[in-house]
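Task: complex structure prediction.
Instruction: return structure tokens for all chains below.
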Amino acid sequence: MSNEQEHHDHVPVYVKLAAFLGVLTGAEVIVLWFAIPDWLMYFALFGMAAVKFGFVVAVFMHLKYDNKMLTGIFFSGFTVALATMVAMMALINYQPSKVAINVKDSKELAALNAGNPENGPTVFMGKGCAACHAIDGLDGAVGAVGPKLTGLGARAGNTVAGQSAADYIRTSIENPNAYVVDGFSAGLMPGNLKGTMSAEEYKDLVAYLETL
Amino acid sequence: MSTASAVVDQHHGGHDDHHGHEEHSFTGIPSKKILMWAFLSSDCMFFGTLISTYIIYHGKSLVGPYPLEILSIPVTTVSSFVLLASSLLMALSVAAVNRQDLAKFRLWIFMTCLFGIIFLGFQSFEFTEFYHKGLTMSTNLFGSTFYTMTGTHGVHVALGVLWLMSWFIYSFFGDMRDKAIDIEVAGLYWHFVDIVWIVIFTVIYLIEFVGVGA
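Output:
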């Protein structure tokens, strides 16, 4: 019968705890009206929730009085759950921002940076370049508003002193009025064409134009 | 051999907190209790994924209603009090059945069920209100994650009410003398549903209003 006594004695504890938890719940709501820094607010709210959680588990659920093995069983699952939550929240928006590439020398680096000229015609046609520029052998590239680009690769390197073919081509796309070919008007070519392409497309286009 | 059984008897006697004949595992803990704690441990992971999914998609809804527009702190505070009070009632039920005070046991467990039903009433009211304000499970990410999580919790409460109600009914027809452990295990489940709500109340309702004011 001593057991009855033991359980009976818990009743006042239960009532006091319930009153305390009620007050704490009220405090959780009231604290929202206080003008305190957000970090302190989060700290207070999560702190009070943790206290409530702890007391219910310890007293109402008897973990405080029971075999510690039960505490172990429960909190092993709880810990896995909490760790999974933290991991999910931390990783869900994770995107590798930098890809590490090991290159041995500048040649390899240049090869990695080089565009694929085979994709160039697709970009050239896709971005509407053909409306103004003609290229022999490329179907549909018949425009005459701007200079014909056949043989550009060979000319480009010799047009401006000290500028490689690739540099000349890039400059002419990014800043069309930098060098205007004789017989054509400045101000006709849009200056924002590079912005309409992905980095990959731009590299491919420049690589293609170099081969002309 | 006799020494071993004497030790077991002593051990058993020393830990026999409840009336009747419980199945004790070699640990000295009633098997039903270990089972319930193992289940609750796994249920932590279940709710953990639902709560973190809510947090991850929080603020990512493309169309309204948004949480700040429809969540109601006053309504939810009252329903939180109701669930909290039901935890006390549940603890009193377990204490009563341990004393074999059947009248008190019936009163408290009935009240526990009643408070559980009141809580579900609040949830139904809330869901209906949200539905009329245009929030369904497929409206936006808030709707999907909110209803899935609080709905799963509501199902837990509803199952708990059925479980406890069946013991209330049983107490009029069956012998409760060896059932203290069953009530205690049902109580563990009920308290767990309460602590899950403590977390949901904080993460979904209170945190939403940080920096905004209720």
